[in-house]
Structures are given as C-alpha cells and as structure tokens.
Target: Acetolactate synthase small subunit
Amino acid sequence: MERTIGVVTEEGRGVFSRISGLMERRGFQVRGVTAGATQRPGMARYTLVIGGDERQAGQAVRQIRKMVETVTVEDLSAGGCVERCMMLLKFAPSPEEREALFEVMKGYPHSVSEDRGSSLIFEMMGPGVLLDDCLENVRGLGLVESVKSGPLALGTN
Model:
C-alpha cells in the first residue's frame, strides 16, 4: 500500500535533505518524490509517496510537522487527491513492432514527441499506476529507454 503526503515548507537550503534524512532515519520507504515552487513566493511544495498504511502515514506527517520550516503537511491519500506523473518512452522498433506498438498505445493517453522513423519517443501523463501498466505492456516492442517522474498531487478537499 502507498500513501501520498503533501508538504509545504519555507524555501531554504537543506530543507529537502532534512526531509529525506527524516524519512530514512524513521525507516519510511520513499517510492516517489517531487519538489517544486508553489503559488506563494518563498514556499516550496514536496510530494512524497511512501510505502505503508494510514498509521505509518500519520507517523510521517507528525514527524515532518515538527520541522521548523514546515508550513503545512497532510496525508493526501486520506481525503482524496489528484495525482499525476509524466513518463517518456523511447523505442527503436522493427516495422512489425512499430505497428503493434501503436496498437497498444491506443489504450493510453499519449502524444508522439519525436518520430524519426527508426526511433520514436512517446510522452505520457497520468496516474502512476496507469503509466506503470503501459510500461509493462510495451516492454517487448523495441523499448530502448524509459523515464518516469515523481508524482505531483493536490488534495481534493
């Protein structure tokens, strides 16, 4: 089971290092992380996906809340959230694989970022589980390289 935690902090040197160190010391398995700016100047937002249940997420929230720089922290999974990741997939398919690849990709939201005939790059955005499913379904179709971002998430409350 995974939990998504949203953290807003004051911007500053070493804040992310302290958050990741805290997760490490407390034994939380971080499965995804994204950091970025917010609509408020001087603030940063971190989205963490950790392995664990509601109790473990609650413990992580309490620990992060104790940090001096923390403005808000919440378990986004508890109240519902919209989560998106991005993935790029690079292929060097044979002519037969190319046809099959386009057929498989019809089932997923995507765009072709680059098509040079002998190589293709697809761009996808969606929930992490959807992107993982797509990756599993295209593995044998000339896949050369893939990269997936950490999550962006906002609570729906």
The two ends are 22 Å apart (CA to CA). The beta strands are 2-10, 30-37, 43-51, 70-75, 81-91, 111-115, 120-126, 143-148, 152-155. Residues 82-155 form a domain with the Alpha-Beta Plaits fold (CATH 3.30.70.1150).
